[in-house]
Amino acid sequence: MKAHFKQKSLRKIIIVLFVVLIVILAFVYYFFNVFNNELFFKSGNSKRLVNPVSGLSLEEGVENFDENYIRYLLISVGGSRLHPSPFSSDTPKIELNVGNRIYYAEVVDGKVIVGEGRIENEDAVITTDVEEIVKMLMDRNYILESYRNGLTRAEARVSNLELISKGYLQLYGEFS
To answer: Global pTM?
Structure first.
């Protein structure tokens, strides 16, 4: 009877230690991903991020639109804090349908990479138009208004669990 009791206690201790180890590893992973991104600049090594529509009218912003607008918007809302799921190398990927153009965004080691074209295995698809993005860049509070009015839509392509594990929930929490 005592041997059986000791085995149960030993199993519980091993399970607790395993859970604690997982929590510590997740914390270390999160810590390094949050502080190794484009919003935390190292002195002398990085350029300061500048809003691409700063000083422009709405019409000028629409006329000059390029992928830098999307990159800046994603970084400004915390997109560079997205990360692969723990114990996975599957990076966060977003496809953006902007008017009649398609762009992709991928977060790799805290850097937001944006380009024109489709991306495979995207986590989400965002649909909007150029004018909406320019308005969002001019007033960050406009982002929620655009979603509420149906002018910008987002569609998840993966499970909620995967979105949460990559950090999308934290990003969503910024706007709720």
So the answer is: 0.72
> How far apart are alpha carbons 7 and 114 in whole angstroms?
54
Q: How far apart are CA 113 and CA 58, in angstroms?
A: 25
CA distance 154 to 114: 17
User: Sign (positive/negative) of CA torsion 144, 147, 166, 77?
Assistant: negative
35, 83, 91, 128 from 38: Cα distances, Å: 9, 13, 16, 25
Domain 58-173, architecture per CATH:
2-Layer Sandwich (3.30)
pLDDT in tens, 72-86: 999 989 999 999 998
Residue 176 predicted with pLDDT over 60: no
